[in-house]
Every structure is written in structure tokens, then in C-alpha cells.
Amino acid sequence: MSGEKSEPRVGLVILGFSCLFLAIVGRLVMLGAFPSDQVGLRRATSNAISAARPDILDRNGIQLATDIRTVSVFAEPRNILDKDEATELLTAVLPDLNAKELRDKLGTKKGFVWVKREITPRQQAEVHRLGIPGVGFVPENKRVYPNGNVAAHVLGFANVDNIGIAGIEKYIDSQGLQDLNGAGFAVQASDLKPVQLSIDMRVQHLVRDELVKGIEKYRAIAAAGAVMDVNTGEMIALVSLPDFDPGNPVDALEKDRINRMNVGVYEMGSTFKALTIAMALDSGKANINSSYSTAGGMMRFGRQVIKEYHGTGRTLTVPEVFLHSSNMGSIK
């Protein structure tokens, strides 16, 4: 009899545990699919704080890129009672905000929205004095470039989330930096080993200054130059103009801002004559004393006519072909 009485109790216990288990599983699913305000806030805050990047240095230890701490404003729309008043107050102290866009953000049912990224300490104090419930601050890392445009195409830049978009900055991320940040192991730049480049900023400045002068003198639309150590293959300087400000790369993606040293295409022209003559000498088809007539100043190949630019009208030796940049001599 006692065994028969205990069976309903065992069934109730099993049913209770089953319901509890299902409730826990359901709650976990809800949190994963629809995170609460606090979960969303913690996730956004963690992502913002974690996005640290290592310093980038030139070969002499000069700082080319580093992180500084800044603050961004966020809002929890569900906790803001008077959204119109909040919009009016925030746009008064942050005048570059679009009132309609902000009101639309605050009108959502989201648990977390950005109000403005990377504000100044003065703006932070003014927003804090407003005392709006549901509005707070998140510390972030902002990428700065002390040398401005000078090494723009080498460094690339990082976006507002401090993620590398181009250049060395993007390469650093490809080596697993974002995985490290995502795991929370890099809270600030000092936690990471600096990345040292072969670039020498003294040479970089000189190359850029000369290219700027060249553009102004010849009214060129672009210029590029590089300095390489022929013994090691190290790049000592690399400049492409026009360039951009990595700290404010609003025009970095314009088509004239390409890095002409690695993706630009330019006809070699007479500079190719050095290779032509070198190949002729190397193959034995010509030697230093070989001579070629340039009389007439032109040669015809089908529909193409090859002319001398500054023709001499006489026979030239191999050194003279190179010296006078003779088109006819190079062809022969």
C-alpha cells in the first residue's frame, strides 16, 4: 500500500523537475535570441572597451599610431520616459546631432542605442549634468596618428569601432587581434606588443616633401615614390599623393587616393630603354661599341610610326642610344 501511495509523489517530483528544466532552457533561449537591456548593455560596453590596438612605431621607435581613451554616449530607449524632452536636451548640448534621427532611435524598443561616439570631456560633463535616466557613457579607445598624412598609405586607418580597415592596421587585425580583443585579453594598447615597421620617418618626410614640390612645379595630378634598402629589401619610405588623414579618413576611399606604389598603373616610357639595352648586352646581341643609324628620324611598323623625340640624325653607339634616349636606336 505504501508503495502505491508513493508513486504519485514521485510523478509529481519528476514533473516539477521537468518544468524547472524547461523553464531554464526557455530562459536561456530567450536571453540568446532577445537579450535583456542589461545583457545588451554589458555586451556593447565590453566590445567597446576591448577594442584596443597596439602602438605602431617606425624603425627608430617614433610613434606612428596609438590609442587614446575617449567616451561615447549611449541610451536605453526602454528606460527613457519622455523621449521628446530627452531629444531636445541632448541636441542642445550636442548640436551636431540630427534631432529627427535621435528621436527615431529613442522611439525604438531596443535596450541599447548609440547617441554619439567619441565626445569631448566638456560634452561629457554637459550631458552628465542633464541627468537623463537611461542615458550613460561608455569608455572607448580612439586611434590617433601623431604624424597626420605623412605615412597614410603605409598605416591605413581604423574605423570608429577601432577595427583596422586598410594598410598595416588591417594587416594587424588579420593576425588575430580581433580574436584577442573579443576574448577580452586586450583592454588597452599597453597590453599589446608594439608593431615596429622598417619605415624611417625622417626619410618618409623628405620623400613626401619632394613629391609635394614636384606636383606643384609640374602641376601633376599625382605622384609616388619609395626608398628601399637594396641589401635587405626593407622599405625605408613609401609615399603616394594625393593622400589622406588617417585620423579623419573621410576621403580615403576616393579613387584618386589609391596607393600608386602597389596598385597604380603607369606607362614606363623611356625608362624601359634601360631594360632593353641591358637585355641586348646580356644576350650578346650588342656590345658597348655597337652602333645604329638613326637617319631619317622615323621608322614604320604597319600602321605605327616610331619617331625620334630629339633626334640627332646620325649613327649612335649603345651608350649614345641611352644618353639621347633614342627610340630608333633602342628598336634596332
Please tell me the overall pLDDT. 84
CATH class of the largest domain: Alpha Beta
How many domains would you count in the coordinates?
4
Measure the end-to-end span: 118 Å
CATH superfamily of the largest domain: Penicillin-binding protein 2a (Domain 2)
In short:
This protein is of the alpha+beta class.
Architecture overview:
The structure is a single chain. With 332 residues, this protein is of the alpha+beta class. It folds into four domains: 1-34; 46-196, Penicillin-binding protein 2a (Domain 2), CATH 3.90.1310.10; 201-257, no CATH class; 269-331, no CATH class. It is built from eleven helices and 13 strands. The chain has helices at 2-33, 37-50, 83-93, 99-106, 121-130, 152-155, 167-182, 201-218, 273-283, 318-323, 327-331, and strands spanning 56-57, 63-75, 113-119, 135-144, 157-158, 164-166, 195-196, 223-228, 235-241, 291-293, 298-301, 304-307, 315-317. The strands form five sheets. Strands 1, 2, 3, 4 and 7 form a five-stranded mixed sheet that branches. It has a two-stranded antiparallel sheet with strand order 5-6. Helix 3 (83-93) packs across helix 4 (99-106). The chain starts with a helix and ends with a helix.
